[in-house]
């Protein structure tokens, strides 16, 4: 990077918040996709004004600026594909306010999701979005990706909790969207446009979040099925019975084996699939729901059902779910991770189709995910160095996306498009859809720097 530019950036963030040695740049060259693109420099702004200052300089010199939270993204959105400045938001990590009267919070983007949840729980409040990465990922990253998690089936995703934003445009201008109120229809809904925009339109510098009361009680259960199709059909039956669990997660046999091998917690490695189900709310109501779900699982063919008796047992069941990502990479070093969604009633169809695709292309495909909202994490476990296998992986991914769209689904439920799914976006939104998105982008980022 030119000295003139480096000096200008250091004048904004301070020497200690600017990195450009090769060793430091390598540390910010990758995310959870494991693809690598080297930035020219890394800056850590400490305020909205500093973000704005960086953007103005970058805009003047036509340099890309890539916002980054914790770098846990699965689609490469934080990667500096064309070089430029990686702007890491983790210094802006204050919970500015928890407003108990209005049930809202105002935060900076670098706050870690799990830390925020614990903090609001102290006031008897609840922020439901729970990506499995919540111990590391930032709220800014969650907003940029519109992240979801197991609780989305009942509580929705990040978008459903964002009331307003402060953001800095690529030109350096600062905008405020939405309001601190539960309702607002003043002007275009820019908040919703920015949520899920993956850092391509603006850098989020402040977030107003809606909170809800913490549920009185939670019950967690595990149902083990000999056949995967039995589990998939039971998911549809539970939803059809008008019970919306707070989570309804599923793991196939390959996932169960990996997790058991990783944790040694006594999971049934011969089982076709298991469902991890949680209900929350008033004690009396959830007890009734637990017995109804128990009945539906047995009817659906479950051969074993475990109901957690206390928080420690609940935590153990969740440990299995949260360990999946780490456990499955033991199968093969490269994980091609898709997060398709189908209408809930189509879960059995997509599971059957995925098995067929794995067989057709002779690939190891591990499936788990948020069955309750039709969001299946399809993980093709492969080795990037095996060229022949990677060609088959590409064909399999195309067939998975085509099948998903034919079933009325979407190619991404929560991980975003980033660089990994960009070639497929037009299959879902069409050429005109892409064109409209480009026009929106141009109004935020006239120099197309991101
Ligand atoms: C083990 C594991 C489990 C995961 N589980 C889930 C899951 O259950 N559900 C889920 O939805 N995702 C999951 N993810 C993906 C990832 O954690 C989420 O996408 C998360 O929201 C990314 O947050 P981050 O802070 O790491 O953002 P980064 O990865 O750093 O960035 C993600 C995107 O957000 C943009 N961005 C970051 N901060 C800002 C900002 N302040 N302003 C504008 N743009 C910004 C970046 O440019 C990039 O495009 C998982 C990832 C891992 C590694």
CATH hierarchy, class of the largest domain: Alpha Beta
For the record, the count of structural domains works out to 4
Derived from helix and strand composition plus strand pairing, the structural class reads alpha+beta
Number of helices: 15
CATH-defined architecture of the largest domain = 2-Layer Sandwich
What's the CATH topology label of the largest domain?
A: Uridine Diphospho-n-acetylenolpyruvylglucosamine Reductase, domain 3
The termini sit apart by 18 Å
Give the ligands present.
flavin-adenine dinucleotide
Give the integer mean of the pLDDT values: 94
Number of strands: 18
Whole-angstrom Rg: 22 Å
Jot down its keywords.
binds flavin-adenine dinucleotide; 18 strands; Uridine Diphospho-n-acetylenolpyruvylglucosamine Reductase, domain 3; Uridine Diphospho-n-acetylenolpyruvylglucosamine Reductase, domain 2; 7-stranded antiparallel beta sheet; 450 residues; alpha+beta; 5-stranded antiparallel beta sheet; Alpha-Beta Plaits; 4 domains
């Amino acid at each position: 990077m030119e000295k003139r530019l480096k000096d200008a950036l250091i004048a904004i963030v301070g020497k200690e918040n600017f990195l450009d040695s090769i060793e430091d740049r390598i540390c910010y060259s990758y995310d959870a996709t494991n693809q690598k693109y080297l930035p020219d420099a890394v800056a850590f702004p400490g305020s909205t004004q500093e973000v704005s200052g960086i953007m103005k300089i970058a805009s003047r010199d036509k340099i890309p600026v890539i916002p980054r939270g914790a770098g846990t993204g699965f689609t490469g959105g934080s990667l500096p594909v064309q070089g430029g400045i990686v702007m890491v938001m983790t210094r802006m990590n204050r919970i500015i306010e928890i407003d108990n009267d209005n049930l809202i919070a105002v935060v900076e983007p670098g706050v870690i999701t799990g830390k925020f949840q614990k903090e609001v729980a102290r006031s008897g409040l609840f922020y439901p979005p729970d990506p499995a990465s919540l111990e590391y990922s930032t709220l800014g990253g969650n907003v940029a990706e519109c992240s979801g998690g197991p609780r989305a089936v009942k509580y929705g995703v990040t978008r459903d909790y964002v009331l307003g934003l402060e953001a800095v445009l690529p030109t350096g201008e600062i905008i405020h969207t939405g309001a601190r109120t539960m309702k607002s229809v003043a002007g275009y809904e820019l908040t919703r446009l920015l949520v899920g925009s993956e850092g391509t339109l603006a850098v989020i510098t402040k977030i107003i979040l809606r909170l809800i009361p913490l549920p009185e009680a939670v019950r967690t259960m595990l149902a083990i099925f000999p056949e995967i199709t039995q589990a998939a059909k039971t998911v549809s039956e539970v939803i059809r019975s008008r019970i919306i669990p707070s989570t309804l997660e599923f793991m196939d046999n390959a996932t169960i084996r990996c997790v058991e091998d990783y944790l040694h917690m006594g999971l049934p490695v011969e089982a076709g699939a298991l469902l991890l189900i949680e209900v929350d709310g008033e004690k009396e109501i959830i007890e009734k729901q637990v017995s109804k779900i128990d009945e539906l699982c047995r009817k659906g063919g479950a051969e074993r059902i475990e109901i957690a008796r206390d928080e420690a047992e609940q935590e153990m069941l969740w440990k299995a779910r949260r360990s999946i990502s780490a456990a499955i990479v033991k199968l093969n070093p490269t994980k091609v991770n898709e997060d398709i969604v189908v209408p809930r009633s189509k879960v059995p169809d997509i599971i059957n189709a995925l098995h067929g695709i794995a067989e057709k292309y002779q690939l190891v495909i591990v499936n788990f995910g948020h069955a309750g909202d039709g969001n299946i994490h399809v993980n093709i476990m492969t080795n990037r160095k095996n060229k022949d296998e990677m060609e088959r992986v590409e064909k399999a991914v195309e067939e998975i996306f085509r099948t998903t769209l034919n079933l009325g689904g979407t190619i991404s439920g929560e991980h975003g498009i980033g660089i990994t799914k960009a070639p497929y976006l037009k299959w879902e939104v069409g050429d005109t859809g892409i064109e409209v998105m480009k026009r929106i982008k141009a109004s935020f980022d006239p120099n197309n720097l991101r």
